[in-house]
Design a protein that fits this description.
This protein is an alpha/beta fold. It folds into four domains: about 200 residues, no CATH class; about 250 residues, no CATH class; about 170 residues, 3-Layer(aba) Sandwich (Rossmann fold); about 160 residues, Glycogen Phosphorylase B (Rossmann fold, 3-Layer(aba) Sandwich), CATH 3.40.50. The strands form two sheets. Strands 3-4-2-1-5-6-7-8 form an eight-stranded mixed sheet. GO terms for molecular function: glycosyltransferase activity.
């Protein structure tokens, strides 16, 4: 059996494909409208009545076939390896479904139809189902260009056949037979074109072709679900027509529906593309989430462009498009446009369940909505305004519920609905004030449509290096910079050596200047003015504010392929994915906003929660942190990539004296716990001969010196300042014991470096250090227990043989930490997040 890789796998939704299908749908609608006007002129009144009734029945049959077969074919072709058998099974199903549809259509007009007309209706019903199957074959095999040609080609063939039939004197029966001729011709063409495409090999390609019973069950479920999706936005006019018994007052309402449903044409095209993409990838996959987010962005952009134009259409233009509609009825366009937007949103949302399931809960929801709609619309049918607003409220509530189910199913929220809807409201207000000035209204409408097309244009792949915009927060040159900046620089400089163009944007600090360091371009943001520049906390807040406001400008200047957001104090994340269309990867080395919230009595943790939920791809620097991220945001794709080590740290240093206790890192108390170490050492100082060497700088350096003096250990503590490069490893190698008193860590770079130099570590028993500081290489005591820490200090300082034994096991436990491997894996992740299709393991 021959297999070819599914072309949908690893690809993002194609805006060009959706644009093609949308244009084809609009062209088909316009051609149908023109053909109807032509038939009115060509046929006698009695013949036209028969033709109009039959065409209405066939429209219902075509809607049912189009709602059932293409989604079913797309699912089956993506999930089955034996596509030939699948197509044949679906064709048999289409033929069997077409027979009762043909019988029902013939029975509906048997009282006045001629045998020729009945035969034409039956033939058209059968060929429409086969034509829908052919369209499904093209859609399931990603032949969107041929599919876009199929719809207008069918109308064109029908027009030619209608002219020939009328000229031949066959009347309404001949015009109806044109449906069968056109549908049959395009069905054969579609099936032949689809057969030329290689067999798809999607997410479930190892599964055999479905058995008949299972196919029928899925087909019935898909057909009923899609029929309800099509019916719900039009149920208002169906119920009103039945209640009012064809009252002529409904005519303006019916005519305005033609204009108000324009967003649904676009949504149907987007849903066709989205269904093919989702069906080709596993549920909950990164690629599926990317496809859905991209499609939802296109949907909201289309809504922002089309809905204001439809809702504010000037009466002078409306009289041209829909002649005979009274001017007062134009006020119905606003609620009817809301119905159209809600119906379009419903169409896109339902696609997720068509591709991935389960469909039954959604089917129950739509049945309940339809059941509620019937009495509601019947009660308001006498007042068209009340009917329109009732339809708007019910359809919007149903669409909102479906979106909530989508978010619960795959974790994708409105995907950027806020900004487009705000722009739509603004455009509506502007255009509404210009309704009486048609030329100016047309000019503004053209600007709105042009902006929407520009926004949704596909980004062409440009030549040149792969570009990364890294919102790095901390400059490694900044005093007090911690292990996070070390990781950022070590990875970025290796990416730069591989030809990647990396721009790192950092928070302002005293003496900060733009620079290129090891191939990485560092761009510090502007400093705070005056005395505020010396306040570290305000500089941090200024960084996040500048990122939030200035990210579009940074993106335009650097033109990145991916944006990397480092989580940093005090907010962790400011929801960068909601600020740009560029793919974003979250690099999590800090996740402790709640501690900062308690320290400053500000709701930083609320911002952190919102920012974290905006991300779909997260990199954690330890398995413990990755587990916490998965707990907080289970729908995101979280990958653990630990820090690496400089090979110089692992170099053997025989005979190095080991006399002192060493603390190396940022001089900070909130997370690094330097105050806990000083209190513990004060308890142990009289019992040991080892001095305490403290290396580093940071925001609490002055407080630490004052605390040491207050505790009476100032003469036993030596402050070394910042230690970099090889001197860092030499210092660790001369220590008897390295103290890591952190209250919170995301990885523990100092602990890893100490173990590499064969020095044991004393730490608190916190999650992210348990994997590094095992019982074979160090000692852990209960978190925050100063007394236990002091006792362990005394025991280890007085037992150098035990320290040597623990230290000897250290290098083997961290030898796998390699910066080159981390950089390679992180680059693969960047490319995968940008739709490259390549992937990396879920954990290191």
């Amino acid at each position: 059996m021959r297999r070819i890789r599914n072309p949908a796998a690893g690809q993002s939704p194609s805006p060009r494909a959706a644009t093609l299908l949308t244009g084809a749908a609009l062209l088909t609608g316009a051609a149908n409208y023109g053909l109807s006007l032509l038939v009115v002129r060509l046929l006698p009144a009695t013949e036209y009545v028969r033709y109009a009734t039959a065409s209405t029945l066939l429209l219902t049959v075509g809607t049912l076939a189009g709602a059932t077969m293409p989604p079913l074919m797309t699912r089956e072709l993506a999930h089955r390896a034996e596509s030939g058998r699948t197509v044949r099974a679906c064709l048999r199903m289409a033929l069997m479904c077409s027979l009762p549809c043909a019988a029902a259509a013939c029975a509906a007009c048997i009282s006045y139809a001629t045998p020729a007309l009945l035969a034409a209706i039956a033939a058209a019903s059968v060929t429409m189902w086969i034509n829908a199957t052919g369209a499904g074959a093209l859609q399931g095999r990603l032949r969107f260009r041929q599919l876009a040609m199929l719809w207008p080609a069918e109308v064109a063939l029908r027009g030619v056949a209608t002219l020939v039939a009328v000229r031949a004197g066959w009347g309404g029966s001949g015009a109806v037979a044109a449906f069968a001729i056109a549908a049959g011709t395009t069905a054969v063409a579609a099936l032949v074109a689809g057969r030329r495409t290689g067999v798809t090999d999607g997410a479930g390609a190892n599964r055999p072709a479905a058995d008949g019973a299972a196919l029928w069950r899925r087909g019935v479920t898909v057909g009923v679900l899609q029929s309800l999706v099509c019916l719900l936005p039009t149920l208002d006019i169906v119920v009103a027509a039945a209640v009012c018994a064809g009252d002529a007052a409904l005519a303006p309402y019916q005519a305005l529906l033609v204009v108000a449903r324009v967003p649904m044409f676009v949504a149907a095209s987007l849903a066709a593309v989205l269904l093919t993409r989702l069906a080709a990838v596993p549920a909950h996959s990164r690629a599926g989430g990317a496809h859905l987010r991209a499609t939802m962005r296109q949907h909201w952009t289309a809504v922002a462009a089309i809905a204001p134009l439809v809702a504010t259409c000037p009466p002078s233009l409306l009289s041209v498009v829909l002649p005979g509609v009274p001017a007062p009825s134009a006020g119905l366009l606003i609620p009817l446009c809301v119905v159209g937007v809600a119906g379009a949103t419903l169409t896109v949302g339902v696609t997720v369940f068509l591709a991935w399931g389960p469909m039954r809960p959604l089917l129950a929801l739509l049945v309940v909505a339809a059941a509620l709609a019937v009495p509601l619309y019947a009660a308001t049918a006498a007042h068209l305004s009340a009917l329109a607003w009732s339809a708007a409220a019910l359809t919007t509530a149903t669409a909102g519920t479906v979106l909530a189910l989508v978010r619960r199913r795959v974790g994708v929220p409105g995907a950027g609905a806020g900004a487009p809807l705000a722009l739509a409201l603004f455009a509506f207000c502007v255009l509404w004030t210009l309704r009486s000035r048609t030329p100016l209204w047309c000019l503004i409408a053209l600007v709105v449509l042009t902006a929407a097309l520009w926004t949704t244009r596909p980004r062409p792949r440009r030549p040149g290096p792969y570009r990364v915009l890294h919102l790095a927060f901390e400059d490694p040159r900044c005093p007090g910079a911690g292990g996070g900046s070390v990781r950022t620089h070590e990875v970025n400089r290796r990416l730069a050596a591989r030809g990647v163009e990396v721009t790192a944007v950092c928070a302002p600090w005293a003496g900060a200047t733009p620079a290129v360091l090891d191939g990485v371009r560092y761009v510090p943001l502007p400093r705070c003015p005056g005395r505020l520049a010396g306040n570290r906390f305000l500089c941090q807040l200024a960084y996040f504010g500048a990122i939030t406001a200035g990210l579009p400008l940074l993106v335009r200047r650097t033109r990145p392929d991916v944006v990397v957001e480092d989580f940093a104090a005090p907010f962790s994340s400011v929801a960068v994915p909601r600020l740009t269309r560029i793919p974003v990867v979250g690099l999590v080395q800090w996740l402790s906003a709640r501690d900062k919230a308690r320290e400053y009595h500000l709701p930083f943790h609320v911002v952190e929660r919102y920012g974290l939920r905006s991300h779909t791809t997260l990199v954690a620097v330890s398995e413990g942190l990755a587990a916490e991220l998965r707990r907080r945001h289970p729908t995101a794709r979280t990958i653990a990539l630990p820090n690496g080590l400089d090979p110089a740290a692992l170099r053997a240093r025989p005979g190095a004296p080991r006399q002192h206790l060493v603390y190396l890192g940022r001089l900070e108390m909130t997370s690094k716990g330097l105050d806990l170490l000083l209190h513990a050492y004060a308890r142990a100082a009289e019992l040991i001969t080892c001095d305490l060497l403290i290396a580093g700088d940071g925001p609490h350096a002055g407080h630490a010196r004052a605390l040491a003096a207050r505790l009476g250990i100032g003469h036993r503590v030596r402050w070394l300042g910042r230690v970099n490069g090889s001197a860092r490893f030499e210092l660790l190698a001369t220590a008897r014991l390295v103290c890591v008193p952190s209250r919170y860590e995301t990885f523990g770079m100092v602990a890893a470096e100490a173990l590499a130099t064969a020095t044991p570590v004393l730490a608190f028993d916190i999650p992210c250090l348990r994997d590094l500081v095992t019982d074979q290489v160090g000692v852990r005591v209960p978190p925050g227990d100063v007394v236990a820490y002091s006792r362990a200090l005394v025991a280890l300082a007085q037992d150098p043989d035990r320290c040597r034994a623990l230290g000897a096991s250290g290098p083997a436990g961290v030898r796998h930490l390699d910066w080159d491997a981390v950089a390679d894996a992180q680059l693969r992740l960047y490319r995968a997040a940008g739709g490259d299709g390549r992937d990396v393991p879920g954990a290191w």
